[in-house]
Structures are given as C-alpha cells and as structure tokens.
Amino acid sequence: MEVVILPDADEVADLAARTIAAELRRSERPVIGLATGSSPLGIYAALRRIVQSGELSMAGVRGFALDEYVGLPEGHPESYAEVIRREVVEPLGMDPALVRVPDGAADDLEAACADYETAIAQAGGVTVQILGIGGNGHIGFNEPTSSLASRTRIKTLATATREANARFFTEADGASVPTHCLTQGLGTILDAGSLVLVAQGEGKAEAIRQSVEGPVSSLWPASALQLHPRATVIVDEAAASRLELVDYYRETFAAKPDWQLA
Ligand code: GLP
C-alpha cells in the first residue's frame, strides 16, 4: 500500500485527481468507481479542472457508484443517484447513460444487486476506484464485520453512520436517514484495477491508523485495502496524525517525484 501524507485537503484532492486521470487515460476501456460523502468532493473539483484544461475527456468514461440508500423517493436530493448526477456527471461532462448507481428503489433489491455486479463485469471491471472512509473504517457502506469477500448486497447501516450522515437530511427533504442501503462488497471493491482512498481531518485518524497499520480485519473494513496490490491512501496531516511509520511514508513519496503519473 502506498501512503502519501500531504499538508492539506486541497493537495490531497489534487494528487488523487491527477492519479485517477492518469489511470483513466492509460485504459482502453476506462471505468471510474465513484464514491459519495464529503471526502471525494475535492477530487471531483480537481478532475473538473483537468477536464477543462483539455488533458482528460470524461465523455466516453463509464462510471459505477459504490452505494445507494434504500427507500428514498426518486429524485431525493440526498439519494446517491442525485448526488452523483449533481457532483460528478454534470460537472465532469460524463454521459449519464454510462453512469450507474445501485437501484435502491427496486422492487427486487437482491436482483438489483446481482444486476449491478453483472453490469460492472460487462464493462470490463472498474479501472480506478475512488474511496472515502467512515470514522468506523467503512468503505462504501461496508460496515464493520462486513465479509472481506462480500459482493454487492443489502446492508443495515450502523447507528454511527446514520448519525454521521444525518447532517445531510433536513425535515424539508421529507425523509430521515434510511436504515438500509445497497453497497458494493469489499470483494467487489478489491476487484478494481487500482484503489485511491482519501481522508482528511482528525476524525478519520483512528480509522486510517487501524486500516493502514492494523491487522486485516472485518472490524475495520478499509483494512481490506492491504490485500490489494495497487492501493493508494492519500491523507492530510490531521488524518495521518496517529500513524507510526510517517517517516517511511514521507521518504517513499519524496523518492518518487513522478509518482503521480506512475
Ligand atoms: C458515507 C459513504 C462512504 C463515505 C463515508 C465517509 O456514508 N457511503 O462512501 O466514504 O460515508 O463520508 P464523509 O466523506 O462525508 O466523511
């Protein structure tokens, strides 16, 4: 696992975006794995600048989101389908027909999960997967104790996750945080060609420590990244504040000036 510690959230977003753009450019069938939450928003803004500079076109790039709430009315502003449309598809000029989000409104949710796995496989798999991390170490909505081999499925959200995400839901929206979701499994995520996880702020420091330097354990789902041969964790100083091997990470990064285009 590559661990990169940068001074602030802007630099985290910038390096993550350049890394992702390089992966997409190199691929003959580029597929971007999309994450929601606040952590990747800077990446999308930085990718937009790269697109505007003419160094990358997202027009033919396919996209698959990690997860979706179950039971939100269609078009609800906090449904991940809407978030992805608003924050990613429109600003980056992606073709909406090429971007999928798990269908949390399906009558048959299990069939929707199976369809999603099939669609990813038919697209040739995800080229590069963007990941944030929850304070409890979740990625996508794979809460602690998720199987390291799990595939896209229905999950119950942890109380801590519902509380953390309550800030996005207002009474005016007419819905509170759902209790269930559909999420790509840890096994699904590990199938991506490369993984780029970003974290900012002290609130993520323990999750980063456990996931990067702790044992591989379903109690800290992001520790599954240790099983992936091309996983990169890009964090700011605050999120790195509980890591032990910081000198090693800094030396490794400093020794590879062209790392982001590797
Ligand atoms: C959300 C998403 C995750 C995200 C995480 C952290 O619930 N399902 O994909 O990584 O929680 O969110 P934030 O980046 O807002 O801290």
Itemize the secondary structure elements and their pairings.
Layout: E1 2-6, H1 9-26, E2 31-34, H2 41-52, E3 62-65, E4 67-69, H3 80-92, E5 99-100, H4 109-122, E6 128-131, E7 153-156, H5 159-165, E8 180-183, H6 186-190, E9 194-199, H7 205-213, E10 231-236, H8 246-254
Parallel strand pairs: 1-10, 2-3, 2-6, 3-5, 6-9, 9-10
Antiparallel strand pairs: 4-8, 7-8
2-amino-2-deoxy-6-O-phosphono-alpha-D-glucopyranose binds next to helix 5.
**Main beta-sheet annotation:** 7 strands, parallel
Beta-strand residue percentage: 15-25%
Mean pLDDT: 95
Give helix % range: 25-40%
Looking at how many chains there are and whether they match, the oligomeric state comes to single chain
User: Which strand order do you get reading across the main beta sheet?
Assistant: 1-10-9-6-2-3-5
Strand tally is 10
Low-confidence stretches: none
Distance between the termini: 14 Å
Radius of gyration: 17 Å
Quickly count the helices.
Answer: 8
Briefly note the structural class of the backbone: alpha/beta
Hetero groups? 2-amino-2-deoxy-6-O-phosphono-alpha-D-glucopyranose
Shape: globular
